[in-house]
């Protein structure tokens, strides 16, 4: 499969790609010469919101790094239900099926906003990691983390109540892509209630009910494709299944305080290891 179709691809100058890569933690340790070498054979791609980088089941012909924007990774189950596996943020490697010796992509990757990525042919993977061992190590760490997150996802679905799962999912997204706003910390990309439902194994109705309840209590504000966290400590307590404080919307300690010291931080979003 070609890296995004011609209508979704744009020629980006090498200096621009160089500058964008230099700003990513993954590539920052590389020298200019190493960075130039890493760029060889890479195709810059621009994805409009809603465009696909690749589709589940397609031949795993490329691997990628996201330079700008945000992508959604989703899997279709044998029963035809869609599960949102994770979100890809700038600096993340994705499409690593070649690193797992998988011939096809196990998930679909779609832009949730205008995004820019670099695509390398899958055949270049071995040379890529041989020339840049630190990038190979980072890819291995990424895949290990995704497997661990998948185990956490299974555990949450088996043992946690829906309110816990939704609270933890929002907290993870805020920590990964939070942006300060006038009324709190917003998730820095468009996200729908259906997306949250597909992340947490529940229904659109349940997510809507929870967000409406939390909005009344001053914990979040939510609109069309927008979620803003107003009281992080309150949502932390819900994620840990502790009872919320009385009159949560007016409690200063709830708005500005920290969760109890013995509260474990929420786990990260589950990820498909080679998606």
Short description:
The chain contains nine helices and twelve strands. The protein is α+β, with helices and mostly antiparallel strands.
Tell me what you see in this structure:
- The chain is of the alpha+beta class and 275 residues long.
- The protein is 37% helix and 21% strand.
- It has 9 helices and 12 strands.
- It has helices at 14-22, 32-39, 125-131, 133-159, 162-177, 193-200, 204-216, 232-239, 252-256, and strands spanning 43-47, 52-54, 62-68, 71-76, 82-88, 93-94, 108-111, 115-121, 178-181, 184-187, 220-223, 226-229.
- The radius of gyration is 20 Å and the shape is globular.
- The protein starts with 13 loop residues before the first helix and ends in a 19-residue tail after the last helix.
- Lateral arrangement of strands in the main beta sheet: 1-8-3-6
User: Span from first to last CA?
Assistant: 15 Å
Total discrete domains: 2
- CATH-assigned fold name of the largest domain: Jelly Rolls
**Based on the structure given, which CATH architecture of the largest domain is correct?**
Sandwich
Radius of gyration in whole Å, from Cα? 20 Å
Within CATH, the superfamily of the largest domain carries the name Jelly Rolls
Overall mean pLDDT score? 81
Name of the top-level CATH class of the largest domain = Mainly Beta
Order of helices and strands: HHEEEEEEEEHHHEEHHEEHH
Q: Describe the sheet with the most strands.
A: 4 strands, antiparallel
Rough shape? globular
Helix percentage range: 25-40%
Class per helix and strand makeup = alpha+beta
How many β-strand runs? 12
So how many helices?
A: 9
């Amino acid at each position: 499969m070609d890296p995004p179709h011609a209508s979704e691809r744009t020629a980006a100058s090498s200096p621009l790609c160089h500058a964008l890569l230099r700003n990513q933690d993954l590539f920052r340790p590389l020298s200019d010469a190493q960075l130039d070498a890493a760029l060889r054979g890479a195709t810059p791609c621009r994805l409009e919101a809603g465009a696909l980088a690749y589709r589940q089941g397609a031949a795993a012909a490329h691997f990628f790094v996201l330079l700008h924007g945000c992508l959604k990774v989703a899997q279709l189950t044998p029963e035809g239900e869609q599960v949102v596996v994770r979100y890809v943020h700038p600096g993340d490697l994705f499409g690593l099926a070649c690193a797992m010796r998988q011939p096809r992509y196990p998930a679909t990757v779609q832009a949730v906003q205008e995004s820019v990525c670099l695509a390398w042919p899958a055949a270049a993977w071995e040379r890529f990691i041989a020339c840049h061992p630190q990038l190979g190590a980072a890819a291995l760490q990424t895949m290990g983390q995704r497997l661990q997150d998948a185990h956490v996802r299974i555990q949450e679905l088996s043992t946690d109540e829906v309110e816990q799962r939704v609270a933890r999912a929002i907290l993870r997204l805020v920590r990964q892509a939070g942006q300060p706003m006038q009324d709190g910390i917003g998730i820095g990309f468009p996200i729908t209630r259906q997306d949250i439902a597909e992340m947490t194994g529940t229904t659109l109705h349940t997510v809507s009910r929870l967000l409406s309840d939390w909005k009344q209590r001053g914990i979040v504000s939510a609109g069309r494709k927008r979620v803003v966290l107003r009281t992080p400590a309150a949502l932390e307590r819900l994620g840990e299944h502790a009872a919320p404080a009385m009159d949560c919307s007016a409690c200063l300690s709830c708005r500005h305080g920290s969760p109890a010291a013995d509260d474990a931080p929420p786990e990260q979003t589950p990820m498909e290891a080679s998606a």
